[in-house]
């Protein structure tokens, strides 16, 4: 597989996993706690809550996917290793992980009241696991360009990828 | 087919150094074994010592499992012992070697006394023949068959059905080379006359290309650079008038005499910098080995396109292989070696260097073979720098302005992509990236050799 094909496949994978994470967060959130949260919200029924919740998961998923994509694009096209000091870049990966976690927790925290829906701790936990855990950490382990392939924490646990 | 390279004297040793580098770079034709022999009475000669180091390194690199389908380290070498063959022994004079005491007051003895001055007869020959081929010719004619196992070894190879190409390198203006080239060629021809159809003998006759100013040694017998041109003239006259000894003869010299920085009669102090003439002489050997064994006799003169400039168009071999090897060495020295040092000292984390995790995790990078390679890489860069430092004349092979020789460091890392003067996409980043990409090698490629192979392959345009 040549480098361009690999790049295209990884971008498609990032998009696909982002969509999958959004769908998973929506499906699990709405089924596990959706009914009780909808009734707890003011002037809200279940279908209207679902509509607002979908907007919330979509926004969180999109921004998280953007974090994974930014990491991929920076590692693929921006970072240059003309000197050994240019290798690794874990600090950048960690910064984006922090951003992903902030998005996974911050969007529900600040955007849900604007949308007029209530959320509980399960949703926050779900978002953290799905978006930051799967949608960033796990995704970057498998999509990081080869020159930085062991930069994501724990990447070596998944074996050598040649 | 087997190849033999015989270096004669100090200049021959320096040609051997260049040939060793070219051989490691994979420029020798086919996958034939190269037997290396050296003839030099000055066994402690600094030039020979440096060459021996490069040769021993190459012998070590043959342990690296880089696979059989690559040009890297492809030619196997064997060093013919004794290495170097010292025809004079220790603390011997010409009188001792000729056994003059047997001939004292005889007609032969008196003729001998007429032909050689007292100083020539009584000077110990530990530092070579000191620019006096007449001494060397007498000694070599007497001692070569007695002490060297070369003829016997070649005979054995031929008797097993193999053919042999023998290439001699030496200067025609000094002592050992000027004496040895015709003498050794004739002795080999005579000794192997029964196998004439299975051997081919070539030689590079190196014409003057350096000069020196002796200091504080007025009383000693030594080579004088003012004699180089008359010596050369006499030698060339000899070769043109006498029987043609060689199947292929190459003449390499320089119109500008490069001044030797520190003059030495011989021994360890004789450690002259490498010169592009020696590289060309080594390329002559490669050209000879690539020719069919029975081809018309040739005399080759090598010249360049522009008087004061060397460029790739003057390089009579596969430049892409040489450039790839140079890139490989510089990438190793600049990108790999510092990382290995940092990882060993605990100053770096392995995750930053995926190629280390993939290829070298679990390998002891302080093992002698790997340390040897580190030294070799630096030595190659130093050699290259010397080759390209040519009395102010411009050398546009690997641009010497791009790197410092010792330690071999790129002055500007971004210029790595233009190492051979042509703009390429092969930056250090690109090489780092290629090192991490998937590959398929057969099971014979393993260990540190696998990593070197991957790096070498990554350096191809």
Structure overview:
The complex is a heterodimer of chains A (162) and B (461). Chain A has one domain. Helices cover 74% and strands 0% of the residues of chain A. Chain A has helices at residues 3-40, 46-78, 90-115, 121-143. Chain B is an alpha/beta fold. Chain B is built from 16 helices and 13 strands. Chain B has helices at residues 9-24, 46-61, 94-98, 100-103, 107-115, 118-122, 133-147, 150-159, 176-191, 228-241, 276-290, 319-345, 354-360, 368-387, 428-435, 447-458, and strands at residues 2-8, 34-39, 77-79, 164-171, 199-206, 210-211, 248-252, 258-259, 298-301, 309-311, 394-396, 403-404, 409-410. A seven-stranded parallel β-sheet of chain B has the order 3-2-1-4-5-7-9, with helices on both faces.
Layout of SSEs?
The complex is a heterodimer of chains A (162) and B (461).
Chain A: H1 3-40, H2 46-78, H3 90-115, H4 121-143
Helix pairs in contact in A: 1-2, 1-4, 2-3, 2-4, 3-4
Chain B: E1 2-8, H1 9-24, E2 34-39, H2 46-61, E3 77-79, H3 94-98, H4 100-103, H5 107-115, H6 118-122, H7 133-147, H8 150-159, E4 164-171, H9 176-191, E5 199-206, E6 210-211, H10 228-241, E7 248-252, E8 258-259, H11 276-290, E9 298-301, E10 309-311, H12 319-345, H13 354-360, H14 368-387, E11 394-396, E12 403-404, E13 409-410, H15 428-435, H16 447-458
Parallel strand pairs in B: 1-2, 1-4, 2-3, 4-5, 5-7, 6-8, 7-9, 10-11
Antiparallel strand pairs in B: 12-13
Helix pairs in contact in B: 1-2, 1-11, 2-14, 7-9, 12-14, 12-16
């Amino acid at each position: 597989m040549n480098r361009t094909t690999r790049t295209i496949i990884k971008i498609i994978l990032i998009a696909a996993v982002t969509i999958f994470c959004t769908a998973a967060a929506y499906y699990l959130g709405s089924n596990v706690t959706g009914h009780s949260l909808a009734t707890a919200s003011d002037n809200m029924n279940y279908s209207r809550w679902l509509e607002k919740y979908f907007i919330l998961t979509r926004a969180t998923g999109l921004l998280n996917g953007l974090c994974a994509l930014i990491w991929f694009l920076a590692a693929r096209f921006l970072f240059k290793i003309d000197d050994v000091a240019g290798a690794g870049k874990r600090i950048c990966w960690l910064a984006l992980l922090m951003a992903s976690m902030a998005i996974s927790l911050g969007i529900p925290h600040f955007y849900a009241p604007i949308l007029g829906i209530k959320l509980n701790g399960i949703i926050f936990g779900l978002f953290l696991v799905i978006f930051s855990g799967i949608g960033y950490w796990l995704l970057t382990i498998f999509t990081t360009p080869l020159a930085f392939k062991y930069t994501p924490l724990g990447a070596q646990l998944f074996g050598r990828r040649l | 087919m087997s190849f033999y390279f015989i270096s004669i004297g100090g200049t021959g040793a320096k040609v051997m150094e260049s040939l060793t580098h070219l051989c490691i770079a994979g420029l020798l034709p086919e996958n034939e074994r190269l037997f290396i022999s050296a003839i030099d009475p000055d066994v402690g000669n600094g030039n020979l010592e440096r060459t021996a180091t490069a040769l021993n390194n190459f012998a070590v690199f043959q342990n690296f499992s880089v696979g059989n389908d690559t040009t890297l380290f492809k030619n196997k070498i064997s060093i013919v012992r004794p290495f170097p063959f010292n025809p004079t022994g220790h603390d011997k004079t010409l009188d001792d070697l000729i056994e003059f005491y047997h001939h004292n007051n005889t007609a032969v003895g008196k003729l001998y006394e007429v032909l050689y001055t007292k100083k020539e007869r009584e000077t110990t020959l530990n530092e070579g023949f000191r620019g006096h081929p007449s001494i060397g010719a007498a000694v070599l004619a007497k001692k070569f068959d007695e002490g060297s196992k070369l003829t016997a070894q070649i005979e054995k190879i031929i008797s097993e059905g193999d053919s042999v190409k023998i290439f001699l390198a030496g200067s025609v203006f000094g002592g050992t080379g000027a004496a040895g080239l015709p003498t050794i060629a004739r002795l080999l021809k005579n000794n192997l006359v029964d196998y004439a159809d299975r051997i081919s003998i070539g030689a590079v006759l190196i014409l003057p290309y350096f000069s020196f100013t002796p200091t504080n040694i007025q009383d000693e017998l030594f080579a004088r650079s003012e004699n180089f041109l008359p010596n050369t003239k006499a030698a060339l006259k000899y070769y043109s008038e006498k029987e043609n000894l060689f199947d292929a003869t190459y003449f390499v010299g320089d119109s500008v005499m490069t001044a030797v920085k520190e003059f030495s009669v011989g021994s360890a102090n004789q450690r002259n910098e490498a010169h592009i003439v020696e590289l060309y002489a080594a390329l002559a050997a490669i050209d000879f080995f690539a020719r069919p064994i029975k081809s018309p006799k040739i005399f080759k003169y090598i010249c360049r396109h522009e008087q004061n400039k060397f460029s790739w168009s003057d390089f009579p071999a596969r430049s892409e292989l040489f450039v790839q090897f140079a890139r490989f060495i510089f990438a190793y020295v600049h990108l790999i070696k510092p990382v290995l040092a940092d990882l060993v000292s605990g100053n770096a984390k392995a995750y930053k260097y995926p190629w280390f995790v993939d290829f070298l995790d679990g390998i002891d990078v302080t093992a002698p073979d790997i340390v040897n390679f580190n030294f070799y890489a630096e030595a190659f860069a130093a050699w290259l720098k010397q080759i390209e430092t040519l009395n102010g004349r411009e050398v546009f092979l690997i641009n010497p302005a791009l790197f410092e020789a010792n330690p071999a460091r790129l002055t500007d890392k971004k210029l790595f992509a233009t190492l051979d003067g042509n703009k390429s996409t092969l930056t250090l980043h690109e090489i780092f990236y290629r090192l991490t990409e998937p590959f398929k090698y057969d099971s014979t490629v393993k260990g540190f050799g696998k990593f070197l192979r991957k790096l070498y392959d990554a350096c191809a345009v």
